[in-house]
Amino acid sequence: MRLKNLILAAMLAASSLTASPSLAAAKDLLVVDFIAEPSSLDPHVQWNTDSFNVYRNIFDNLLTRDDQGQIAPQIATEWKYLSDTEVEFKIRDGVKFHDGKPLTAEDVAFSIKRITDPAFASPQLGQFNQIADAVAKDPTTVVVTTKGPYPVLLAQLTKLSIVPKHVVESVSKDEFNLKPVGSGPYKFESWNRGVEVVVARNDDYWGQKGAFPKVAFRAVPDGSTRIANLQSGTTDLASNFNNDLAAQLESSGQGKVLPVKGERIAYFSLNVNKPPLNDKRVRLAIAHAIDKQGITEGILGGFDTPLDELTSPVSFGFVEGIKAPEYNPEKAKEILAEVGDAAKAEITLLTTPVYDQRVVQAIQQMLTDVGLNVKIESTDMGNWMQRMQSGPDTIPSSSFGRWSCGCQDADGILYPLLHSSSNWASIKDERIDKALDEARSTIDQAKRLELYKTVHQIVADENYVIPLYQASVIYGAAKEVEFSPLPNENLFLNRIGWSGN
Fold first, then answer.
1. How many angstroms separate the Cα of 225 from the Cα of each of 70, 78, 231, 235, 323?
2. Distance of CA 71 to the CA centre of its chain
3. C-alpha distances out from residue 7 to 11, 24, 108, 152, Å
4. What pLDDT, in 10s, does the model give residues 297-338?
5. pTM recorded for the entire structure
6. Which domains does the chain have, with CATH numbers?
7. How far apart (Å, rounded) are the C-alpha atoms in residues 148 and 18?
8. Burial class, 70, CB count within 10 angstroms (exposed 0-12 / middle 13-18 / buried 19+)
9. Comparing C-alpha atoms, which of 399, 438, 386 is closest to residue 415?
10. CB 282 within 8 A of CB 336
11. pLDDT tens digits, residue range 47-66?
């Protein structure tokens, strides 16, 4: 059976996503601590965890994933392929934006065309640039046309937030960011910059309503403060725990640890246009110098799993049997000795406090130990994102990064990081471009896997990017919180319950 027929058979599944949390048992205010505040609440302007975990609840997406990871209806109730390049979506009737205006097919088409407009310059453009057009046939029907057969379309549309055309066209981009209007289970209430974003339950929501009347997302950069807040009861749910904080919370008996191995991968990015990283031998030495097992076991406590490729096992496109260069620091030293003085050029290692600095510092030490000259530069997450998608001429020499596309498909990671058309990529390898283009233009899943195997092997041979590990997301929570973390890291407030009185 062809892929599109399989999708067609699955698309009519029931739209119920999870068991209803108990409204009666919930507290009035749920407090969630993140490392940083959102960069933007306009869902088309930014793509980082601290942003989308907030705006995911203000806006509905065209599609979503259920708690089992399957693509499920949201604003689209059903869909069918008219051809290999045309998909017709039926839009849910009776959905209203937070200002009371109805959500129609026109809003869906507008949202798709907005995020795919190159002039709009969304950092998510690479996720949606195979969409050629979106047309509202009538108030409840949208036809999406792709540039060719595009097997990742539905997976990508689970991230496509629907914005109100009448609002976006009447205000500036900055005004919409400061006061976003969506149709989701929570309404934007306030944003105290650097402190918190508060959202209020949308009691007129068409779907599963949230258990909590209000939710506060707070920016708490320091991990010890996040755990202290949990233990004191001032915070109910906190993200970005490392293994030490998780052990501390567990041993205290004042909360619980909720880990999940996700689609997010950690990687060491190299700008192959800048010396000494333009020398393939230096990149091989770097690959030999990094002890992935030592990082995951010795630093991260075994929550994370070493990887030899840029795709997580929970995502389509992961291929068994790829072997990256093994950890061998002596071999790295030999290679660098052959390179000579050119290998001693300074390498900037860009990072941000959002990432585990123990890992960043360990990588710096490992590379220093084999004779490389690596200097850490730290910046805030917004600036990190901007610099890492600034094109090959200005992307820093190297960077520690963690990537999740939210789509659980290799295309969402490999294309932006490796394809020469992407602002995130510093390489231009025609073999990789060809394989990635073919993989996102055939619905033959077996062929796609072979193409991704080709890409993984080239990366392992050339060391354009060093895959590090499959990252776990570790939350800390009050004992009363009922929450099952998802591999795609989406935090849906209306799927969180409360067991206390």
1. 36, 45, 10, 10, 40
2. 16
3. 6, 38, 21, 11
4. 999 999 999 999 999 999 999 999 999 999 999 999 999 999
5. 0.76
6. 3-211+478-498 (3.40.190.10), 263-472 (3.10.105.10)
7. 34
8. exposed
9. 438
10. yes
11. 778 898 999 999 999 999 98
